[in-house]
């Protein structure tokens, strides 16, 4: 585990990823202190986080995979709509204070338990995505930490259809991979980077709920995903 201090959360996430030589999506991050500009330059606070690489090994009991993600009780429709409206209002206020030209921010409850979809569009939407999606990942983690802590909700962040396009591309690529797994009982992906490996991991775990699906690292430090049967130990 490492401890990082920086002027902004985005910078802290980036430093953590560089220090551990991985992408932000591969980190377990805990925000210790949110940054603050203080008053008239006084009492300024830096962003402080701790970060550790996510375990590359999945628990054998896959059925429990969402316990941590959805550890909160299912919220009512009224609670979800109220939270979505509040989040939308705060995000709009945030963007007004930024240098980005954003025309539309919409937050709506998703079918998935305790999750909201955040849709952002506008002239500068591409700037929020950044090269290879690195700024997208940092922004996603920043608002996830805020929303999960304050509202106990998960998020899906869609900026100018970036997430949709990435999901569609990965879904097409994974089609023959899935076919090989169905035929031979095991398989693996090519090396993937950035947000792609996270999308692919979620896609494959949803498809093969009874199999071991995990991220591995090759000798060149590239990340890929393996799919095979669980190996259960005798008690």
Attribute tags:
single chain; 235 residues; alpha+beta; GMP Synthetase, Chain A, domain 3; Ribosomal Protein S8, Chain: A, domain 1; 3 domains; 3-stranded mixed sheet
Short description, anyone?
With 235 residues, the protein is an alpha+beta fold.
Structural overview:
Helix 1 (9-19) packs across helix 4. By secondary structure, this protein is an alpha+beta fold. It has helices spanning 9-19, 77-97, 125-129, 134-151, 162-184, 195-207; strands spanning 2-6, 27-33, 47-53, 104-109, 115-121, 154-159, 187-188, 212-217, 223-228. The strands form three sheets. The chain has a three-stranded antiparallel beta sheet with strand order 1-3-2, covered by helices on one side. A three-stranded mixed beta sheet has the order 4-5-6. It is built from six helices and nine strands. It folds into three domains: 2-54; 77-160, K homology (KH) domain (GMP Synthetase, Chain A, domain 3), CATH 3.30.300.20; 163-228, 2-Layer Sandwich (Ribosomal Protein S8, Chain: A, domain 1), CATH 3.30.1370.
Contiguous runs where pLDDT drops below 50 for at least 5 residues? 56-70
- The largest sheet has its strands arranged as 1-3-2
Which architecture of the largest domain does the CATH hierarchy give at level 2? 2-Layer Sandwich
Largest sheet: 3 strands, antiparallel
Strand-residue proportion: 15-25%
Task: Write down the Rg.
Answer: 19 Å
CATH superfamily of the largest domain: K homology (KH) domain
Q: How many separate structural domains?
A: 3
State the shape. globular
Question: End-to-end distance, in Å?
Answer: 32 Å
**CATH top level label of the largest domain:** Alpha Beta
Counting DSSP H or I runs of 4 or more residues, the number of helices is 6
Order of helices and strands: EHEEHEEHHEHEHEE
**By helix and strand content, what is the structural category?**
alpha+beta
Helix content: 25-40%
């Amino acid at each position: 585990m490492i401890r990082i201090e920086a002027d902004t959360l985005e910078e802290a996430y980036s430093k953590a990823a560089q220090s551990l030589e991985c992408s932000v999506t591969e980190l377990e991050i805990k925000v210790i202190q949110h940054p603050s500009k203080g008053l008239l330059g006084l009492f300024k606070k830096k962003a402080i986080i701790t970060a550790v690489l996510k375990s590359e090994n999945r628990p054998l009991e896959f059925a429990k995979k969402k316990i941590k993600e959805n550890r909160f009780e299912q919220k009512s429709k009224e609670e979800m709509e109220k939270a979505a409206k509040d989040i939308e209002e705060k995000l709009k206020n945030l963007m007004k204070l930024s240098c980005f030209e954003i025309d539309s921010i919409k937050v709506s409850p998703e079918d998935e338990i305790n999750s909201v979809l955040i849709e952002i569009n506008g002239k500068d939407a591409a700037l929020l995505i950044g090269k290879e999606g690195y700024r997208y990942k940092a922004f996603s983690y920043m608002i996830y930490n805020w929303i999960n802590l304050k509202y106990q909700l998960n998020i899906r962040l869609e900026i100018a259809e970036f997430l949709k396009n990435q999901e569609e591309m990965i879904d097409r690529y994974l089609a023959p991979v899935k076919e090989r797994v169905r035929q031979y009982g095991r398989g693996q992906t090519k090396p993937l980077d950035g947000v792609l490996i996270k999308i692919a991991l979620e896609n494959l775990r949803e498809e093969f709920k009874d199999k071991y699906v995990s991220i591995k690292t090759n000798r060149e430090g590239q990340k890929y995903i393996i799919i095979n049967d669980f190996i259960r130990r005798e008690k």
